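Q: Give me the 3D complex with magnesium ion.
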Amino acid sequence: MDFVAVKLGGSCITYKDKPFTINEGNLRTISRALSEAGRNYFIVHGGGSWGHTAAIMYGLSSFSYSRHAKGVAYTKLKMQELSSAVQKFLIDSGVHTFYFPAQALDERIRRELEEISASGVHPLTYGDVIYEVGRGFRIIGGDEIILKLSGFINIVRAVFIMATPGIMDENGEVIEQITLRESTGSTYIGDVPIIVGNYSVPFSDVLKKMDSSSPDATGGMAYKLYVSLQLARKGIPAIFVGAGDKENIIKALNGSNFTGSIVMPDVH
Ligand SMILES: Nc1ncnc2c1ncn2[C@@H]1O[C@H](COP(=O)(O)OP(=O)(O)OP(=O)(O)O)[C@@H](O)[C@H]1O
Ligand SMILES: [Mg+2]
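A: Here is the predicted complex, encoded as structure tokens.
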């Protein structure tokens, strides 16, 4: 069973600068695109101004462990509220979802996922608080979840739908293509160099810096790019498109002729 993994970015399904708000227009457009493209999806959505706001309020992040009981409960509750709204938009467009908690995602549910998908229902999860034995609670972002999924289901491509029309270079232009060896532009995320000309920095270095420079709880664009390069190493292309244009999202879901960015394995 092949899945198209789709990340509905919190940056486009909410207004990230306004706590606890939903971008209904974008959610409607994305839901219709998913419905019309008609693929087998694993749908992941981000936290946007729900998850990140709650997490930051209580000092939760992807980069450290916490035992803040109220923060954990509150963040999980806010994500549950956001996800109810997101799933309502999807179901209204005929994209029927089946929720799995991020805590439960591992190879033991592979068969369930495949059979559920074969029956026309789309597995869905979202960035959330998880617990790790002996360590504590931490946030797992939607982007990290996609990487985790790629370890036990067959992902043909990952499509990241975001607020920006793609991965932008230092001049604000969309970088159309990034391969493991070269890209068509250079990008810094804050002061973290990710791609400089044809040179992509070792991601262990990026990760070290990301903790301190991250604008949100899960590493923002830098972590997204890290995930996409890890996916490329596994042979999975990652596509980045904006949320506003339904036809373009459909093209991205189908994997061709879209306007946006693609991070892919080297072309041989
Ligand atoms: N080079 C870049 N290209 C594109 N976006 C960038 C870049 N540098 C920084 N950004 C910012 O990163 C944001 C995307 O990351 P962010 O984590 O906010 O989105 P998301 O993953 O969709 O949201 P969430 O984490 O809530 O799911 C963009 O909206 C933009 O503001
Ligand atoms: Mg993010």
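A quick observation: The radius of gyration is 17 Å.
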